[in-house]
Write a structure and sequence with these properties.
CATH class of the largest domain: Mainly Alpha
Largest sheet: 5 strands, mixed
CATH topology of the largest domain: Globin-like
Strand order of the largest sheet: 2-3-1-4-5
Shape: rod-shaped
Number of helices: 18
Mean pLDDT: 87
Distance between the termini: 74 Å
Structural class: alpha+beta
Number of strands: 5
Helix content: 55-70%
CATH architecture of the largest domain: Orthogonal Bundle
Radius of gyration: 37 Å
Order of helices and strands: HHHHHHHHHEHEEHEHEHHHHHH
Length: 429
């Protein structure tokens, strides 16, 4: 028989039945009543004397909850020894849920139950002996068994409820974090009061804050499809900032770890601005290891810019590789950005002369484009370009003429040279 589905309390019931057979229950109740106040006090003193976590906690409710909970146990035991049926231990469940919400360690609560076991044993044993049962030795043994089974029962119930509630809280926190992250990264209507309250509670509407976005993935992108791997990477990003003043809101979106980072831009309106947030997080994110790629956005002064910051971080991630694992958007050259954003359009509709130039360049093992790059590197000084390539100047002039005949563009003119190189880079990309 179980007192509640999923909980086998038969050992506790059997001990109570034994105590009833030898007439300890319910005769012992009057003696127990006289010791309730002292037992409550002894329980509290034993726990506080042995477990410093209670007095060291900064939560003002911890000690109040402890005093109430010890009293609940004494009252419940008094009820059971008065002949009452085993209940559902709802007060243990309530206490465990409270401890989970307060993030008070479960092992400390279980340690407190073990401390209480000794105090309760003495209280019950002394009372049982005082009623002078016919089988005194059997009564003492049964009291010892009761204390053990009672402690086991409440420990099991508290553990089950604590773990279940912790998981529920974690799931709710994940849902709230995901909602908040989506609001920030997708953009939001500033007139939406619900969103405003949510952002304010999370601290994202504080003044003088700087924001940026980091996007993180494994070098092997296929690993991000595994939830456990993505979760570990997300936790690593959060841990990387744990010893800094930087706040992190992170989650997994589209098989990427996306983190919104926030810190004070300046201490007050009169103080100098702090070092850029993106620069401060870079060395922290480099600690994630060689198997991780990271893109970091520019700094932005408000959450309204976070959708833009996400795009910047995604672009920076595109430039990351095994030779340069962490890339800040601010360090990407303008030319590289132009090629990154416009290269696809150029490749879809290239100028008519690009293919003839590419074909001719292949025939000479890339010498034509190499010459164009050398001229650009020499600031359009053909003589210097020839020296850099270890070729006669006439060879360089001949190649430039060949290019002009194919494209109609003169490699010795700035605008023509720029267009030729852009098309060469787009085809190469």
């Amino acid at each position: 028989m179980t007192a509640q589905a999923g909980r086998d309390l038969r050992p506790l019931q059997q001990v109570l039945a034994s105590l009833a057979r030898i007439k300890v229950i319910p005769r012992v109740t009057k003696i127990l009543d006289t010791g309730i106040e002292g037992t409550n006090r002894a329980l509290r003193d034993a726990v506080l004397g042995e477990i410093p976590a209670f007095t060291m906690s900064g939560n003002p409710f911890i000690l109040l909850d402890l005093e109430r909970h010890t009293s609940e146990h004494v009252d419940e035991i008094r009820r059971l020894f008065g002949g009452g049926e085993i209940g559902d231990f709802a007060f243990v469940e309530t206490h465990a849920r409270s401890r989970a919400e307060q993030r008070f360690p479960l092992e400390v609560t279980l340690h407190a139950y073990r401390c209480g076991h000794r105090v309760l044993s003495r209280w019950l044993r002394d009372a049982a002996i005082a009623v002078k049962p016919a089988k005194a030795e059997a009564a003492v043994d049964a009291i010892a068994d009761f204390a053990i089974e009672y402690t086991n029962a409440i420990s099991a119930i508290a553990t089950s409820e604590y773990v279940a509630h912790t998981r529920a809280l974690a799931a709710a926190e994940v849902d709230q974090r995901a909602e908040l992250l989506n609001i920030l990264l997708n953009g939001y209507d500033e007139s939406d009061e619900r969103v405003g309250r949510l952002l304010k509670r999370a601290g994202f509407l504080e003044q003088r804050q700087s924001y940026c976005v980091a996007v993180v993935q494994a070098v092997n992108a296929a690993e991000m499809e595994h939830r456990a791997r993505a979760q570990r990477l997300w936790e690593a990003v959060v841990d990387a900032m744990a010893k800094t003043s930087i706040r992190v809101l992170a989650g997994v979106r589209n098989n990427l770890v996306v983190a919104v980072l926030m810190d004070a831009r300046r201490q007050s309106g009169w103080s100098a601005p702090c070092t850029g947030l993106a620069k401060r997080i870079r060395p922290q994110l480099q600690k994630l290891g060689p198997s991780v790629l990271v893109g970091i956005s520019l700094d932005h002064p408000s959450t309204a810019f976070l959708p833009k910051a996400l795009q910047e971080a995604m672009t920076a991630l595109d430039f990351a590789g095994v030779d340069r694992r962490v890339v800040e958007f601010s360090t990407i050259p303008i030319r590289a950005l132009l090629l990154h954003r416009g290269g696809d359009q150029v490749r879809l509709a290239p100028p008519v002369w690009s293919e003839p130039l590419a074909a001719a360049d292949r025939k000479v093992d890339g010498a034509l484009v190499q010459t164009l790059r050398a001229v650009a590197d020499a600031d359009m000084n053909v003589q210097q370009a020839a020296r850099n390539l270890h070729r006669h100047p006439n060879t360089i002039y001949a190649r430039l003429e060949r290019i002009k005949s194919l494209t109609g563009l003169d490699g010795q003119r700035y605008h023509d040279l720029t267009e030729l190189l852009l098309i060469a880079d787009c085809r190469h990309g």
